[in-house]
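Notes from the 1:1 (GR / supervisor)

We went over the backlog. Supervisor wanted to see one worked example end to end before approving the batch request, so GR pasted a single chain during the call. The sequence is below; no edits were made to it. Supervisor asked that the structure be written out right there so they could see what the output format looks like.
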Amino acid sequence: MNSVTNGPAHTGRRPVVGICARTAPVTLQGSDLVVSLALQSHVAFLAEAGCTPLLLPLLPGAEDLAGRLDALLVAGGPDLDPALYGQDAHPATRPMSPDADRVELALVARALDAALPVLAICRGMQLLNVLHGGTLHQHLPDVTGHDGHRPRTPSFTLGRRPLKLLPGSRIAGILDEDEPETACHHHQAVDRLGEGLTATGWAEDGTVEAVEVTGHPFAVGVQWESGHTADKRLHQALAQAAARA
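Structure output shown during the call:
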């Protein structure tokens, strides 16, 4: 059974949930553009759950917006700058922008300090770990010996991996199923776990797939691609936490 089925039970204004924007080149009506964007499913799932999604471009000062939010969703995206955790870049590492990385780190730190509910997805979970002093495996196949977490196929394909959850953890309560599995597409993962984080989910090969900020009302990181499937449980849980906050 799914223990998270409804949107926030509240009256009055809709909780505002910030979504960290990504930038990407697109061609629109024959014109080459660079746009700030969010996955439409993040927007739709949060709106359906009773929230107002707000796109947050990663510009200097974005962290000051934390005080105007009720929750924060840190979406997936490119690799983090490995200099942030004291490493040189692996040949397979494809970072976004060091400046944007640092803005996002500051935004997440401000949100956590304000006890805002935070859902960190894929890259977002890795950023959460780095923020707490952890490190990353820059290319997971070097560690696991397989590419099951990011299948090598001509088109975007999700890796389906059995998922072991820590009993009694928040993520176990949200998913609430006997045989959970990931729907992932990542080539990096947690190496050294950051201080103040608890690992609460693992793939069968030992890869950390979920973390939670110890002692925080709701700060959950998942390595899988929440938003790339029809599963809305994490977005609904974030919306409920935003309403309570």
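Supervisor's comment: The helical segments are 40-48, 98-113, 123-131, 141-144, 170-175, 233-244.
Batch request approved.
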